[in-house]
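::Encoded backbone::
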Amino acid sequence: MQILDLDEIRVIPESNAYLKPRNYTTHHPSWLSGQIRLQLLPRHHVGRYDQLSMWEALIAISIGFSLLIWSADKFLSAAASIATNFGVSKLFIGLTVVSVGTSAPEILVAVTAAFNGNPLLAVGNAIGSNIANIGLVLGVTALIAPLPFSRSVLRAELPWLLMATGVALLLLFDLELSALDGLLLLSVLAWILYRLVQNEKSNQAGSNEISETINDELGDIPFMSRNRATFWIVFGLIVLVMSARMLVWGATEIAVLLGVNEMIIGLTVVAVGTSLPELAATVGAAIKGQSDIAIGNVVGSNILNILAVLALPGLITPTHLESVALWRDCGMMLALTLLLALFAYAVNTRPVITRFEGAVMLLAWIGYNALLFQQVQFH
């Protein structure tokens, strides 16, 4: 068997050979070497090969998700500990290191997918994670216990999410995500982080909710010595990169085997996978009677998904979208975000997501995924 680079693969004149889409067949996972092993298979081996490849892809996704979540937690703890050892203020750590660190899985997946030539997978992950965070995470959690909106979410974070969503839709209206679009999204993120720091400093004298949230988040992060933190930040980053490559390979392989666009896999499998830790955390908080932090966590995560995760594919490689992605996927993200704002600011109602409203959000998410499945079936 000969190992070929992508640039060396051309049309191969073999009449009794089976080639998967894109004129190649990946017989072994290529997430380690970045190369593709080309093998021509007789037609009577096609079904058995596809079944084996599907199992390989599913196993790669499962292991990739597990290692990604575990390594992201270790990397976040190490980064926060190193910042503390160097005398960085808790305010800066809470608003930057912790906030960005919690989105490390999505960020690494986006970077890996874009560098591997699958930017649509990264775009689908960013948009699909926002849809899943509101529809699935908040919907399920609200069924367990009503979710109140905190003052900081109502005054700052939710308006920022609405602004970020609007900016992203305007930039994607031409069906292209360019490097300039990515820079603009990151600029908005930098402005929001600046405003967070300024707001926190101006209110630091009083007992405000943002400070309490930061202290709670930092309290949940185990402190490490400098040497131990240095080891875990290096080792955690290596595992993050490797697990992201494994996850992206598995997701791309499934897309090829099923004959669907990579963005569909990003909107569903990858998005739900990266949202599962958020779901577990919010459900656990609701069971413990701490449901007030759920909405703030989801809103903050969605802001980072739009302004950081979505920006990266554009910075790495220009990405062209289909029109259906704008009205169906971005439209669903906008609709759920507006629905969240309606529950927060509706006249003559308390700023709480009730069980009924949670059921509405969950049914909307289920209906959206059913639509995706139906369109793939008829594709």
